UniProtKB/TrEMBL annotation:
Chief location category: cytoplasm
PANTHER family per UniProt: 16S RRNA (URACIL(1498)-N(3))-METHYLTRANSFERASE, RIBOSOMAL RNA SMALL SUBUNIT METHYLTRANSFERASE E
Residues covered by the Ribosomal RNA small subunit methyltransferase E methyltransferase domain: 71-228
Record's subcellular location: Cytoplasm
Protein family: Belongs to the RNA methyltransferase RsmE family.
Protein name per UniProt: Ribosomal RNA small subunit methyltransferase E
Species annotation: Sedimentitalea arenosa
One GO BP annotation of this record: rRNA base methylation
Length: 233
């Protein structure tokens, strides 16, 4: 269970209404029941239910069962698509392990806002399902030109470009060293202006995800898989 509260031996962790409903209403847990907790920074803890109510309750931390496992310092940047497929991308990125998820508005992106809280909830749920100890940050929607203008100098950008075609790029030689980000475009691809801007950026290099054009949600999973295969991380 993910909680936004410090975890440590003997620490009491209050539960909100939703958490109490889930633990006591849905999972039928009672006082004394063991629950595994994480908060994204203190690792995983075994706790016990110390108070159970309809509108809340509390847990008491007993012992640390796993250290914090940080994902690679990789950002996934993607243009939001339809709601369910955007949720899918966030969920899969959290499962596969990225440090930060950045929804980006490109010229051909239809969405002009996102529900950051909802996407964050998907990331939390994915981490809970996978026994993770870390939840990636979900950034607010940012325009691509703005993101590129303020790009951190040390981070390199792998720009997934379906026009390269051919076999998938070698992520291994491209991904050594620096912190990285992977950029996936929207359903309509990148505009000529954006292509130009990305091709001329010192920090960016284009990569192919294989000979076929993938849907953006498939492309996100394929890019993270190639990354993981190359770095084992
Ligand atoms: N431009 C195409 C179009 O409108 O028909 C398709 C865009 S594709 C659905 C969405 C994004 O997925 C692309 O912008 C790219 O970032 C990524 N992508 C899909 N297939 C790819 C491939 N084979 N290699 C690299 N990137 C790919």
């Amino acid at each position: 269970l993910y909680v936004e509260h410090p975890l440590g031996e003997g620490q009491t962790v209050p539960l909100n209404r939703d958490q109490a409903h889930y633990l006591f209403g849905v999972m039928r847990q009672a006082v004394g029941a063991p629950v595994l907790l994480f908060n994204g920074c203190d690792g995983e803890w075994r706790a016990e239910v110390s108070e159970a109510g309809k509108r809340g309750g509390a847990l008491r931390c007993v012992e640390r069962t796993a250290d914090l496992r940080l994902p690679p310092d990789l950002w996934l940047i993607f243009a939001p698509i339809k709601k369910a497929r955007t949720d899918f991308i966030v969920e899969k990125a959290a499962e596969m392990g990225v440090a930060r998820i950045v929804p980006v508005q490109t010229e051909y992106t239809n969405a002009d806002r996102i529900r950051q809280d909802r996407l964050r909830a998907h990331a939390v749920e994915a981490a809970e399902q996978c026994g993770g100890t870390f939840v990636p940050e979900v950034a607010d929607l940012i325009r691509l030109d703005r993101l590129l203008a303020d790009w951190p100098p040390e981070r390199r950008l792998l720009f997934c470009d379906e026009s390269l075609a051919g076999p998938s790029s070698d992520f291994e030689t491209r991904s050594k060293g620096e912190p990285w980000a992977v950029l996936i475009g929207p359903e309509g691809g990148f505009s000529p202006n954006e292509r130009e801007r990305l091709s001329s950026a010192q920090f960016a290099q284009s990569v192919s995800l294989g000979p076929r054009i993938l849907r953006a949600d498939t492309a996100a999973v394929a890019a993270l898989t190639l990354w993981q295969q190359a770095l084992g991380d």
